[in-house]
Each structure stands twice: as structure tokens, then as C-alpha cells.
Model the fold of this input.
Amino acid sequence: MRFAPFLLARQNLPSHVLADIPGTVRYELQNSGFAQRVRPGGSVAIGVGSRGIANIDIIVRAVVEWWKEQGAKPFIFPAMGSHGAATAKGQSEVLAKYGITEANMGCPVRSALNVVDLGTTPEGIEVVMDKLAYQSGAVMMCSRVKWHTDFEGKIESGLFKMMAIGLGKFAGAQRYHTHGYRLGLETVIRSVGRQVLASGRILGGLAILEDGNHETGHIEAVPAETMETREEELLVQVKSWMPRIPLRDLDLLVVNQLGKNISGAGMDPKVINRTVYGDYNPWPYAPRVGRVFLRDIHPMSYGNAVGVGMSDIVNSRVVKGMKKKPTYVNGLTSGAMASIRIPVHFSTDRECLNQIWRTVGILEPRQLKIGWIRNSQDLTLMAFSENLRTELEQNPMVEILGPAKELEYDGKGNLINWLA
Done:
């Protein structure tokens, strides 16, 4: 088995990086009108999610410091549904892994799963809200606005989704995903979000946008009154920054790592062209991908292997590194059963490649068009089989880094990682 030699390539994506993140946070909050809606000495609950958002510790600390300067008493709570294995301790540990601790933030971090009832939406959805946040009387969210992994809409993943599934905790997340089968997840997110806004507890949110290099590109304080419309506009903006694999067709995609810190689905389905429900190549703007080979789980996923089922073959270390409880809780809550199925697996990368290439309908391995990425979030440094050179050279954002060379393996039969 010998594949075509590989080219190391860099995709030079446009940068929108903010020069002064704490300064931008302070400016946005100062002009938000949030402080005028909180009585002196009042409590403010700051919701923070479980995604691996760039600079999230810097952003949240700046939010906390600003509220203290206004004379308020801020505290942080995990705005999460089933993440952290759906336990209060697990969710506070998720925040701690991103540097969101009482010591680092200078305020309490309070985690509980108790919720209060906010009534029923016109669609018949019973809405609940984190009890600690509700009792504070003033809630703001720190959330990244981006495309959702599972559906296309005008509102996908962001402030409204955090108001629904994040503030709804485990009880709400289970309920809302169930309704999502009947109504569609965007409808549920909007309906529940409106009901949460009607509680009068929400000040607004800090919307965070990242560019294609996973850098903080935009921060904006969005008041509750304009949140739905403004989030639609911000989603359009961030989708224009979305990184993509710069090719039209791949027989095989090698992915070094999946992880909850990378994508809610472990691997972004809109990058690898899968769905968490088992569909192949549903997204017309992503390359057609014949097979996906997954090599490992990112350490910051802490054993949550949701998304493993979107792979066609995995190295056995993925299976050994998977922790069942967080993986199963996450997959069962979302209803994405295909995403937690364990694929065929072998003990070395060499054997995985030797077995999977035969399934793509090509008789000669050197004819396979192969891509190799670190993960679905980092699409800067990549490798491609040399038979893709012409298409790569036609892309002005792609730079080929040196001559092609054969894949290399260590003494155990695993790929020597060129993308480190």
C-alpha cells in the first residue's frame, strides 16, 4: 500500500483579530445600557458555556470587572445543557478547564441543575430556566455566535440558543431537543428564547465572533430588546468568515482529533460534510468526502467522544480514550444517536489506512485524493495528496510549503504528525 506523496499546505485565511479585547468588552458594556437596569449592589448572573472559545477567560474576566465597577455583585454560572455529564460538579469543572474559576475571575462560580418554570410557549413547549440565574433578577450571557452543526437557519448557535438550551440546563435540553424533532431546532430555539426574554430577567448578551483562524474578531453587547434581529445579522457576518477545506472532492479525510472544545459535534459536520444523524455529504458548500479516518480525541475534550460516529474508521486509541458517561449523556440528550456509534477500529494508523482505502471505489491507492487536517476548527496548516496540486495552486489563499513527500510512520505504525 503506497499512497501518492503528500504536500504540506497553509491556508492563509483573512484575519479579523481584535487588538484590545478587554478594552472592547468595556466599551461595549459601557454603551449597552445594561447597568441602568440593575439596582446598586444588585446581583448579576453571567452565563458561560462549554465551547472552546478563544480568549473566553479574558473576555469573562473583563465582564466581571466592569460589573464590579458599576457597584453590582456578579457571579458566573454554567449555561449548559447536558455537558459536563449533566452534573453540577461536572459543569463547573468544564468552566475551570477554560480558566473560569473563582480565583481567576474574582467572583463566585455557582453551579446547580435546579430550574424554575417559565410557562409554556404557543407551540406547547414547557420552558424552564436556571434557578440561580432566575433568582438573581439580572442575567447576561457570554456566547459565541456561529453556525450550528446540525441545521441551517437565520438563527443557529449563539445567544438565543444559550437562552434556551444553556439556561434550561439538563431538564430543558432534553425537552427542547425532543420538541426539535417535531418543530425543527431553530423554531424551538426562537420560541423558548422569546419565552425566556418575557421573564424580564435577561439584560442581554455579549456576542463573540471568531474569524477563520479561531481568533476573536468581533465582540458586541446586544440588549435583550434587539437580540433576535441582531443575532441574525451577526450570523450572516460570521458565516462569511467560515473556514473551509479548500477543495471540491476528497476520497479520504484524515482528522487528527475531535473534541467538544473544537465543536459541539466533536467534528464540525459542515467542515467534514456529515451530519450527526448519519448522513453523508449533505452540505453543498463543503467538499464531497468519501471516508473519514479519525486518529484521536483532543485532551481538552476529557473523554467526551461525541461525533465519533461520523467517522468511518478510527484508531483504537479513540475507543480506549472515550469516556462513556459524558459521551452517552451528550448524545442521548441531543438525540443524535449516530454520533456516538463506535466505528470499526484498528490499533495503528497504518492498518486503518490499509483497510479503509479499499472502500472508496478506487483500485489503485496512489489515485486516492486524500486530505489531512488537525481538526475541523483549525484549517490553516493541512496536508493533501499530490494529485490535488493543480486545484490547490488555483486557490489564491493556499500556499504549498515545499516538495511532496511520502507519508512517514513511527515504529508502532502510527503517522508521524506533520501538522503539529
The longest helix spans residues 169-183.
